[in-house]
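Milestone M4 deliverable, item 7.
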Amino acid sequence: MAVEIRGQDLILVCVRRGLRGYQLHSFKIINRYRELDPKLLNQELEAFAKGGGASKESLVLGVPRNKVVLRHLELPGGVEENLPHVIRYQVESLQPSDEELPYYDYAVMERKEGEERLSVLLAMIKRADLDETVQFLADLGFPPAAVQVSTTALYNALILGGGPVEDKIYLVLDLEDSSYEVILLRGGKILYSKEVSNLTTLPPVERLLEEMEVGLSRTRLEDQPVEKILLAGTASDRLMGDFKKLTEGCQFLHETMKIGQPGAFKPQLNSFVNAIGMALAELSRNHFMKLNLLPAERRLRRRPVNYIPTVVLAVAILLVLAGLLVRGMVQERKLLKQLQSQIAQLQPRVNQVKQLREQLQEVESKIGFLGSIHLGQEFQLELLREMTEILPNDVWLSNYMFSSSEVKINGLANSATEVITLVEKSPYFKEVKPLMAVTNDPSGKQRFYISAQLEKPAL
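Output delivered:
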């Protein structure tokens, strides 16, 4: 079951998984939900969940795209073993020092084995933007098990249709009455996402197509053909005709989804594609993106070890009740002795479980200590990030050598002098000097080879 916040409304969707695949069971829109009496709103949610046979423990909350910041990170493949610490460092570096660390999660989109690189999608949301909504639903008796954003939901909906063909480019456009989102995918990887909200009216189709061209340009794919343009959202119905007049290969996203649905649902499916994609992530263990912005401490954790004391207590209670139902003092005493014997037999197992839990906590503590040792490697990532940010796009590095106190780089640039000047201005480097004379390359650029001493900036 998914609950998506869309403006002042709640979008409810119930999706089931059966032998024949996924089935859209029901959907509902609750208008101006904040203005409803909490008891009435609770009744609406309870009735919808009961009618769809949905479990409250699998509720997915969908937050608006304009509340979430998405970042695409390209990282060295060697950091994967220490990826949680690396991602946390990236979040801290993007966050102003006077603000509280946001809630975040990430998903590895691609592993480039030949280049030993990782492509990671990072999502962040301010705590204040999420805490109040999560608590609001929890007070209604519907605490979310996961929190997702429209970008990953639309990705999941596309995967349900068979997924993007490898190396083919897909553009997904989510159109609402006062906002739109452009998503660019290549293969199974989200390359670009942009959301524009708080609009009085949607721009003309020509302007939306220009936004798509911007996405292609920023990902350096402007010369590549687009396989399909897929439309979703409440405003997609009225704009589809204009899109087809100006470009080929347009289609509704819901038409590609392999999901069972009553025929009466089809005219309204464009409004529910996001929520369907959110619900799918909780129904599958593998195929869909499970990027979850809910804080780890609020997520439901079910471990078999945690159930053993409960099972033991339940067995004891059943045995007590059985003894009370047996008539006769002799039978009651006999059953009581049996009960005490069984409890005594189970007690060593309970003690063993407690011991195992203590050992587990000790191991987790050691793992945390070992992880802190690897944090020393993060300075190297800082240098790579700094070098990427300060050098202009016309600079090509052919070699990068790092030691404990010095960095050496060589490559091509329009101006070698400008490269030296930019590196000198960085607080990470000092004593920047050329190691050999600048030469002209047949490509028209200047070939440079410089070194710089390392100096970690003051915090």
